[in-house]
Amino acid sequence: MPGRKSVTSVPPAPPRPADGHKGTFGTVIVVGGCPTMPGAPAICASASLRGGAGLVKIAAHPKALALTLAIEPCAT
Questions:
Q1: How far is CA 69 from the centre of its chain?
Q2: Its pTM surpasses 0.90
Q3: How far apart are CA 67 and CA 14, in angstroms?
Q4: How do residues 40-67 score in pLDDT, each as one tens digit?
Q5: Residue 58 contacts by C-beta under 8 Å, 6 or more apart in sequence?
Q6: d(CA 56, CA 7)
C-alpha cells in the first residue's frame, strides 16, 4: 500500500529487576476451550507467557483442561 512504512526494528524490552518473581510481572487468565478444541486456550496461554506475563491461569471446560495443560504445562 502506498504511504506505508515497514517496521525495521523493535525496541528492546525493559529490563526486569533481578529480585523479580512471577507475581511481579502480572497475571493473565485465559477463559475458553471446549472438549473438542483444547488447543486454543493453550496457544493463548503460551503467547501470554512468551509475551512476559508472570503467571497464566486457564479456566476451561473440565474435559478440556487436562489436554490444555498437557500442551502448555507452564500454565496453572
A1: 13
A2: no
A3: 34
A4: 999 999 999 999 999 999 999 999 999 9
A5: 29, 30, 33, 41, 42, 45, 65, 68, 69, 72, 75, 76
A6: 29
